[in-house]
Amino acid sequence: MSTPRTAHMVTEASRGGRESHASRVSRSALEWVRDHQDSFRLPDGEPALDADANWTLKPLGELAQLTFSIRAHSEPGSARHGHASELLGFAWDQTRQGGLFVDLLRGEPFATYPLEIYAAFAAAGLRHPGFEELAVTVQRTRGWERIEQEPNRRLGMLNSERRVGLPPSGDPSAALARTWLGGLPEPWTFERTAGYWLTHVVFHLTDWGNTPRLMPAELGGYLAAWVPAWLDTCLEAEQWDLSGELLAVAAILPDAASYTGLADAVETGWARIADIQDAAGGIPETGLGRPHEPARDFMHCYHSTLVAAFAATLADVRLAGVHPAAVQEGVA
Known about the structure:
Structural class: mainly alpha
CATH topology: Glycosyltransferase
Low-confidence stretches: 1-16, 322-332
Radius of gyration: 19 Å
Helix content: 55-70%
CATH class: Mainly Alpha
Largest sheet: none
Strand content: under 5%
Shape: globular
């Protein structure tokens, strides 16, 4: 399968060299992440099981997942592909090339986060045989079959099992049906928590945009109809992190005509995020950015900036008329 040209190149050429809002956000956000690479490091000398995963492993896992996705939708040899590859390699090194996950799974056999984080590396071709052997043993237990999870996390675990090559512990269609989004709820019931539920359902269902064709047509039509209103609500509320995730959802929609119909809403969204992005490329999760520039610490900026780099990369691909499903995992 041939590798498509990056949308960054195409859109600049088609616009006479003028960089799109999405391209600018993607480039600057990824530069911010590179500049803050050391903040993703795991604490030295601190046993992983004694650390709060939300402040240590969670940022590193998100770095791995989103830089892998950026790399998968970027042309080899491009600056974006190179930066994403470097950051992914850094994240893998932080896990001792997967050895950390063995320790985590031994310490917490029925915690799903070691598998979920490891799966992003496995999808990128970075694997640890010892961890996978142990995961096979744990997955065969009755306890693993009965892990209690929120529906969207269940869908994420099923995708993680698929990525690693483990037999599925459930039916993805049944898991989808139990989620908020899977029920095609009344659109006015959307709020912040439901927003994060629905975006992650889309990410898990489509393998982070690599296989958008797995999205049921009815679900794609529902999202095409209501994402513009939800996005407008989040932009008005200055919820930049969730706005970025909704923009990623828009770019993942499998129907090209649906995405074209979202063009105005998407362009408005990227213009607003480009305006809020600071000179270094950082984007706050919520609230005012430029020109007010509130003090920001890493933990309240990294996720929204990473998400913007990921979503804008997907948007670039769609703007170029290249379907994300045509990009081979770990190749482009």
